[in-house]
């Protein structure tokens, strides 16, 4: 199940840490975080799930709902127009922990 269905107060911390209050196995709301730099990369100005450290080559990083958006650096040295990746596609809440799947 997508994380957004069982999380509230979803926000981005330090430009690369997904944070929220996630429902755990007891029905309680617990603070949870996941460092997106461990799972998302930049491939010539496009987000990719098969990469790491996207934030080191991104500017204007934002979270819009479940969409992570940013201007990403291209190999040419210029920035590509704003790109996005839907975190709901690969991030889940497992008993109050945010996990990459």
Sequence of strands across the biggest β-sheet: 1-2-3
User: What is the CATH H-level superfamily?
Assistant: Cyanovirin-N
Top CATH class = Mainly Beta
What is the H/E string? EEEEEEEEEE
Shape: elongated
Overall tally of structural domains: 1
Would you report the number of β strands?
10
CATH architecture: Roll
Strand content: over 45%
Average pLDDT taken over every residue: 97
Mind summarizing the main beta sheet? 3 strands, antiparallel
Structural category is mainly beta
Give the number of helices.
0
Which regions are unreliable across 5 or more consecutive residues at pLDDT < 50?
none
CATH fold-level label: HIV-inactivating Protein, Cyanovirin-n
The helical percent reads under 10%
Cα distance, first to last residue? Answer: 10 Å
Radius of gyration: 14 Å
Organism: Penicillium desertorum
Protein name: Cyanovirin-N domain-containing protein
Pfam families: CVNH
InterPro entries: Cyanovirin-N, Cyanovirin-N_sf
How would you describe what is shown here?
The structure is a single chain. With about 100 residues, the protein is mainly β. It has one domain: Cyanovirin-N (HIV-inactivating Protein, Cyanovirin-n). The protein is about 0% helix and about 50% strand. The chain has no helices and ten strands. The chain is elongated and about 50 Å long. The termini are close together. About 25% of the residues are buried. The model has no long low-confidence stretch (mean pLDDT about 95).
